[in-house]
């Protein structure tokens, strides 16, 4: 049978995905509902934080603060208290347990037993007087967790009214406190499905509010973002190494026997270095975007990926030209650089955003199994298309840059002419250059995304 849980005046129906208090539905976002059901199903024991994150946030990585926020929201929805819990108890350094002894499990297909219909939480609070003022004071003057909790409570009481009261305080309160109050309201709205919009842009002190919100999210996600960046660099380096070795093998296949047999290994080493550095720049941009963005996650991924790739490409371009000039006295100005990195970074952000949609809330995507391969493939395909477009626009990626070096330095064996001959071209023409750039983008994007989506232990 499909279970339904009853305790006191609450009814939790996993089949309908509804929590009712008497006859009134209690709004919860999907992940918070899943957390409540998990605690009810495992009420005979304490559930560890790792188990909760694995079960409820299996497809994303979130900070410990997100779990604390979820528990706080559940307690508020149930009218519970952390210090004297009736329903959810914190087990120190372990996790959480549903401790109410009167849980009844019944068949969800049967009509629920009649219960009283007490007033919703917000209405009950409102009946005791003005509920906004004490919570507003905590929002403006409390510590970080207290201010976030206050912002969540204000959403439950009414987002629009809370924002109006914040606006009225602007004349008397410091601008910093007001800007931060809006930022907390913006952050807390993701934990409450009935919350209204909290605009920041165009309001007095909006820049301060945005910076404060970005800083808060970065502090929460910095550790996870750093570990994901390391995985992205490793994925890009491995993909670059594979592409380099395969490219060396193709050159050996299409050239004379005089080509050095260790060419594939040398190109593989160069691919590891360049792929890792490229993935560091683009991956840093994507990790930064996932740490700070909620409602504009897709555009943020594209923008930050482009900025990370463009900056990395520009730096590598300058270093390569300086090295060639200093060592060999010859400059090769058309090597891959900032514009190419910008295009690949934007394409990686677009592919990654399309393949890992996050419709509500935050977190960093960690798809599993075949889904992870699909994300890597989608990102790789977007980067491959970007690589071909870069070539058609007159730019160069690594393969075509090596071809420029082969033309500039006699005796070089790293040009694309052998590959062109295999494709039926006398020299590196549109087909060879486009195919080289497309494969290069495919390997880079796939390796970057596969590494980025690794779930940290």
List keywords for this structure.
457 residues; alpha+beta; Arc Repressor Mutant, subunit A; 3 domains; 3-stranded antiparallel beta sheet; 15 helices; 10 strands; 62% helix; 7% strand; elongated
Describe the structure.
- The protein has three domains: 3-107, Winged helix-like DNA-binding domain superfamily/Winged helix DNA-binding domain (Arc Repressor Mutant, subunit A); 128-204, no CATH class; 221-452, no CATH class.
- It has helices at 30-41, 49-56, 64-78, 121-127, 132-141, 144-168, 175-188, 206-254, 263-292, 297-328, 338-355, 369-392, 398-408, 417-422, 430-452; strands at 3-7, 10-13, 18-21, 24-25, 47-48, 60-61, 88-91, 95-98, 104-107, 364-365.
- It has 457 residues and is of the alpha+beta class.
**What is the overall number of helices?**
15
Please estimate the helix content. 55-70%
Shape: elongated
How can the largest sheet be summarized? Answer: 5 strands, antiparallel
Low-confidence stretches: 117-128
Radius of gyration: 28 Å
**Strand element count:** 10
Give the N-to-C terminal Cα separation: 35 Å
| Class by SSE composition | alpha+beta
Topology, pairings included?
Blueprint: E1 3-7, E2 10-13, E3 18-21, E4 24-25, H1 30-41, E5 47-48, H2 49-56, E6 60-61, H3 64-78, E7 88-91, E8 95-98, E9 104-107, H4 121-127, H5 132-141, H6 144-168, H7 175-188, H8 206-254, H9 263-292, H10 297-328, H11 338-355, E10 364-365, H12 369-392, H13 398-408, H14 417-422, H15 430-452
Antiparallel strand pairs: 1-2, 1-9, 2-3, 3-4, 5-8, 6-10, 7-8
Helix pairs in contact: 1-3, 3-6, 5-6, 6-7, 7-8, 8-9, 8-15, 9-10, 9-11, 9-15, 10-11, 11-12, 11-15, 12-15
């Amino acid at each position: 049978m499909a279970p339904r849980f009853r305790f006191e005046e609450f009814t939790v129906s996993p089949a309908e995905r509804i929590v009712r208090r008497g006859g009134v539905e209690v709004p919860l976002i999907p992940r918070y509902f899943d957390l409540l059901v998990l605690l009810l199903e495992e009420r005979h024991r304490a559930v560890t934080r790792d188990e909760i994150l694995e079960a409820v946030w299996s497809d994303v990585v979130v900070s410990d603060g997100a779990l604390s926020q979820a528990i706080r929201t559940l307690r508020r929805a149930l009218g519970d208290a952390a210090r004297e819990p009736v329903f959810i108890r914190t087990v120190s350094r372990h996790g959480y347990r549903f401790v109410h002894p009167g849980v009844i499990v019944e068949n969800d297909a049967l009509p629920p037993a009649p219960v009283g219909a007490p007033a919703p939480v917000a209405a009950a609070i409102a009946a005791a007087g003005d509920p906004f003022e004490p919570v507003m004071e905590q929002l403006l003057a409390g510590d970080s967790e207290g201010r976030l909790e206050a912002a969540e409570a204000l959403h439950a009481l009414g987002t629009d009214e809370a924002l109006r009261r914040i606006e009225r305080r602007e004349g008397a309160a410091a601008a910093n406190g007001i800007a931060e109050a809006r930022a907390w309201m913006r952050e807390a709205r993701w934990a409450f499905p009935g919350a209204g919009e909290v605009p920041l842009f165009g309001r007095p002190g909006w820049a301060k509010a945005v910076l404060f919100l970005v800083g808060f999210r970065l502090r929460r996600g910095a550790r996870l973002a750093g570990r994901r960046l390391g995985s992205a660099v490793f994925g890009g380096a491995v993909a670059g190494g594979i592409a380099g070795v395969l490219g060396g093998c193709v050159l050996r296949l299409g050239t004379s026997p005089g080509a050095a047999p260790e060419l594939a290994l040398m190109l593989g080493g160069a691919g590891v270095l360049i792929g890792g550095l490229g993935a560091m720049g683009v991956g840093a941009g994507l990790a930064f975007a996932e740490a700070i963005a909620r409602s504009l996650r897709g555009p943020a991924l594209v923008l930050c990926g482009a900025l990370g790739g463009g900056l990395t490409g520009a730096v590598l371009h300058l270093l390569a030209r300086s090295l060639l000039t200093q060592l060999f006295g010859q400059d090769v100005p058309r090597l891959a650089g900032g514009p190419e990195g910008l295009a690949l970074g934007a394409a990686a952000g677009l592919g990654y955003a399309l393949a890992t949609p996050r419709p509500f809330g935050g977190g960093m995507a960690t798809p599993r199994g075949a889904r992870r391969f699909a994300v890597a493939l989608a990102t790789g395909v977007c980067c491959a298309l970007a690589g071909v477009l870069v070539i058609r626009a007159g730019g160069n990626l690594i393969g075509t840059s090596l071809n420029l070096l082969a033309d500039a330095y006699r005796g070089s064996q790293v040009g694309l002419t052998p590959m062109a001959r295999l494709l039926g071209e006398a020299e590196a023409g549109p087909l060879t250059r486009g195919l080289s750039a497309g494969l290069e983008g495919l390997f880079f994007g796939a390796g970057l995304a596969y590494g980025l989506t690794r779930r940290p232990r």
